[in-house]
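Q: I have three molecules that I believe assemble together. Could you output structure tokens for the complex as a whole instead of separate predictions?
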Amino acid sequence: MKQHRLSKHICGLLAAAAFGTGLSLSVAAAADLIVARAVDADSLDPDKTSTTQSLQMTNLIYDTLVTMGEDGTVHPGIASEWSMSEDGKTYSFTIRDGVKCHDGSTFDAAAAKARVDRAVDPATVNPDRSLWGPITGTSVEGKVLKVSMSEPYSPFMSFLTGIQAGFVCPSSFAAAEFKPIGTGPFKFVSWTRNDSLQLQSNADYKNFNPLIENPGKPHIDQLTFKVIPEAVARMAALRSGEADLVEPSLEETADLKSDSNFKVYAAELSGQQVLAAFSWKIKPLDNPDIRKAIGMAMNRDAYANIAFEGLVHTSNCPVAPKLFSTDEALCATWGVKYDPDGAKAIMEAAGYTADKPLKIRLLAHKLSGWDQMHQIMQQDLAAINVQAEIETREVAAHFDHMSSENKRTDGEPFVWTMGMSGVDPDYLNFLWKRPGFVEMGLNEQVDAMLDEQRRLSGDARAAKIHDIEKYLMENSYTMPLLSPGWNWLMASNAKVEGFKLGFMVSLLFNDVTLKQ
Amino acid sequence: MSISTEISLRRRGLPLGVLLGLGLAIFIIAAALLSNYLAPFDPTRMAAGPRLAAPSSAHWFGTDEFGRDLFSRVLVGGRLSLGIGIFAVVSGLVIGGLMGLIAAFSGRAVEAVLLRLIDVLYSFPDTLIALALVAFLGPGIENATLAIAISLVPFYARVTYGLAAAERAKPYIEAARLAGIRTGRLVRVHVMPNIGQSLIVMGTLGFSSAILSAAGLSFLGLGVQPPSPEWGAILASGRNYINKAPWILIFPGVAICVTVLSFNLIGDSLRDLVDPRRKGRP
Amino acid sequence: MLFLISKRVLVAFATVLVVIVLSGLLIHVVPGDPVTAMMAQSVSATPEVMAEMRARLGLDLPVWQQVMLYLTHVLQGDLGTTIRGNEPVLRLLMQRVPNTFALAVSGLGLALAIGIPLGFLAAVNRGRMVDTVVMFIAVLGVSIPAFWLGLIMIQVFALKLHWLPVAGSNWRNILLPALTLGLTYCALVARMTRSALVDVLEEDYIRTARAKGLREHEVLLVHALRPALISIVTVVGLVFAYLLGGQVIVENVFSWNGIGRLAVQAMLERDYPMIQGFIVVFATSVVIVSMLIDILYSFLDPRMRQK
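A: Yes, here they are, computed for all three components at once.
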């Protein structure tokens, strides 16, 4: 096998040498779509990964039990009906008849049960296990799957609509090695890591996602994802026609928008929030007034318009816009306003002058737009006598570093930035409840409020979430900056029609057609 | 050995390449040293001009995405790049040189294993070693410099070992050994002065590769932190303007090329004069 | 002779063992926690899940036990599975070896195709203007940052001229990265060719050949170039070994799916089994190759044999 591939390469090389440069580009057949992304999926097993890039792929292969409308309401999916018991501890889902897995097996209530059991089995070591909630058991009654919980878990239904909750078929995890088999709009064909992923449309597909119009089989036949890490190369691939749809470079997107040969897509339902946080355990940032002053110095409009080329919006809440309970106007009344003079006055009153500035570090991870934002932020802080040294790492190293930094109670203070996304404000729990994501948990009071909101539903839950947001902002534990912030843009040539971006930047290809 | 070098230098005269290299190098070093006085703007000052402005009489190299003056950034960036190169080469030479000397002048077992390890390290691409170190040490100019220095160690260790092993075989060493001079003193007083000159020449070659590594690290986002105007960092943050504002890509790139070229020209020509492998070969 | 070979094999084996133990220790020497790094994008990963993950990776065992375990696994040919994606390390490495090999061969091929004629031209015109200009061009190639050259080539050949595709690991995509590598390494080949030829041209037998009235191109091509090629081969070996380690930056710019990208991605994601696997496999192959070369040399060179 290895030998074979090798000789193919060498033959290719000879052929390339023989024909010189008279090579033509591969012209995709009418119903084939080529997509280029910067980063490949880690895994096609939704229980082994939680990166956006992976879940964008798994979401094409697997369906969800229920789906979400643009307004946040829950719609049918694999399950045609569902109900919750009075005490909020038991959920019942009626699994639709005739749902077929890509390998031809039937997806019934027993299959759904097996899938849920696997997600919460400690042996699976699922990083997202806690998102499934406090599940104590599952059972099957005819076509109905019953899930019981030890206590009410109100984010459960929204979670089940999300791309983290793909329902894999039992045949995919029957053997030791995982096989990507689902009921989704596309079938898995082949995957060479970091190179290309090949999918094929599922002829038996029936759609229930309200964001999609096409009721059945996707219009395109072949869907190919290529990995092109360098943005310059990706843009060249789009311009030369080598790829139909790409993750564009931020810097060129504004130009593409005004070019009739291209189309730009921005995720409206990203559920993404970019925020700044503080080393509130370290002097002098233990003082909420100093944190407030730093927040007042941040010129978020400049971040949105210059660093992000006007392709994102400033956002006011610790939770992303358009999610359950998020009220941008209300949050604005709790947060600080941009006021560099006022901020400078606070800092000078605290003894920090131009000659004796407060020295901090600005910890961040590398991402386009973000790098530019931090440089503007650095200048904003310099204007209020805060001398910030930028330290950028790759994502993994950044959060690894943050989890040790956030434990510190003395030494050099720091400001840091992060982004998070989801379909439900419950993600506040994972960030701020002790110990919290990378040790960012706060205190007992916040823990109690966060537990409380999980047990409530409807308006009562919304009110509790507002309380939490108000607490976070009035005490300046966080400074909401922008939304969205990563992977939210796509650009295509003018041939592509009907491409959509769904919740959490899921890629929806069901309605895509190619104009000749 | 020093005699033969002088003779060959005099006989051939300084080659044109070396002259050109020296001229360019002196110009670049002078510009870098005087960059603070020559730069018309603060290299990190935003909105010194309009955003992404093309080269003009006000901004010779144009401006970047924040309206920073590119000419000032490239000038001051030169000081950073050269500084990284010098620090990396000196520390790499010291560590590598010590390793090479230890391998040459300690027992056979140490020599065998140390040489194998040096060989293994040498075979890893230096960019990869530097990248690995920065990935673990964390980013920043100090760590990047250290990482590049370490990535040069195997090269210098090998070169030093080669020179020292050749020196070891000379009769005077045996004579000195018989006279009871200890190895440490022998190396310090007799071996080092004899191979030092060759090592310095090899140093200039490492210098250009250090500058390229630094630029590469910054290009991958692991080197110098923003807003420092290191050349690779300017290229990295400006690369997506390749269609809109190509000058952000052209000037720092040319600066790297010219600098590396000048040191390569000097080093390459001098290398032939001192390379131990080139001696005694048919 | 047999004694010498067995000694070389022993030294090689000892070096490989040292490398395996060192890379087994790697996890514990470097700061940071692989599990936290792995969960970097999993906001919802709880401490319990992290602990399970640590246990599964054996990170809760004492250091010496972990290193011993790693050593025994590697000696049985098991390099473990990656933290990200749970894929066998060896399979991932082997998937990319053909790509890296193909790029190394074609990059080297182009370096030779450009470098040898340049070096030849310089040697024949030694000391003249042609010599200076030719060597200047060669050195210029090695002085251009590969990523910069790569971006410009994409812009020119793929976008403006539409001659070549931008990205991918098919045979059609190899030309641009190979050309970048070729331009980078042709200087080395040219310099080596030049100095080897210059040496050969001073030999007595060349003078004899000339004196015998052989035509100049015959002298150069038949009598001078052939012996010079021997020392060129030495350089070729060096460059080739170096290229096999993967060319991170070129692979990234041209989306070439080689070993270098795999290694760097593993480093940035702190995927320790992958990093260790890369180090062990790469170092072992280098040790084996250099051992074979040593043994080969001792066959070829009688002086070495006597030592």
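A: One point stands out. Chain A has three domains: 18-60+174-252+488-514, 66-172, 272-483.
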